[in-house]
Every structure is written in structure tokens, then in C-alpha cells.
Amino acid sequence: MVPSNTSHDIINNIQEVTGFSQKDSPLTYLGCPLYIGRQRIIYYSQLVEKVSKKICGWQARMLSFGGKITLVKHALQSIPIQTMATISPPSTTIKYIESIIVDFFWGRDQDQRKYHWASLETMSLPYEEGGVGIRRLTDICISLQYKQWWNFKAKSSL
Description:
globular, mainly alpha, 2 domains
């Protein structure tokens, strides 16, 4: 990957010396998009697609709310963790994944959403406070950013 204003002579020299070929941005490396410039929602479409594909396999099954909560907590919320630990996806992408998860939990009838009896904010509360313990992806993303900051500060002070 090189910036768009790089001359063709430099690109050809890099290709001859290293043997690498040029690819367009974004590249996916270890499940995370690598790109030049600002974030775009389209770069994270593979992440959203992974969550959607998981849910499609479960839609036809008759699952109780307890079964759905277990799948959401242990399967769906673990999919974007690696990406969020390395880079922070745009908030629009995170909100879209959260809406997919909530729609799966409450269900669909012939491509129409069912009524959501509780908001995601209420559902993400602990059991003792009336929630079901689902973690919000926005909160996870913020905590992972703080962890990166802490690791950076701890290693830079040595």
C-alpha cells in the first residue's frame, strides 16, 4: 500500500526490490482492515457480514430468550472484539451491529421487526438492576481504547 500521489517509478522500484504486488485499499490483515486516510464504514462491511451470517443460521431455530441471550453474549459479541482491540470502528458500524443483535434477540416476522419490549440500554444493565447483562459494544470499544492508552503510557514511562 502506498499513498495515491506516489509516482509509478517509485512503485515499480518497490515491486522489483521486494517482489510485492500493489493492492488497493483497504486490505484485510488478521481480520482488521488496513487503509490509508480516514475511516469509512464500507471498510468494516466484512465485520458486519460475519455477525449477520451467524444470525442467519440461528433465525430458523426456535430459541428461548435465555438461549438467545447466551448466543448474544458468547458468540455474537465476541466476533468484533479482535477488531475493536486493535482499531476502533466507526460508531455507525458499532451501532449497526448492535441493532442487528437486538433485532435477533427480539425476533422478526416476515422481514418485519417485532416490538422491542426493552431498549438496549435497559438490557445492558446488570441482573441486579433489571437488565440481562448484555454488554454494549460501544462500552467495550471505549474500554479497549483505554487499555491501549494504559499500555502505551506504562511502556513509554519505562
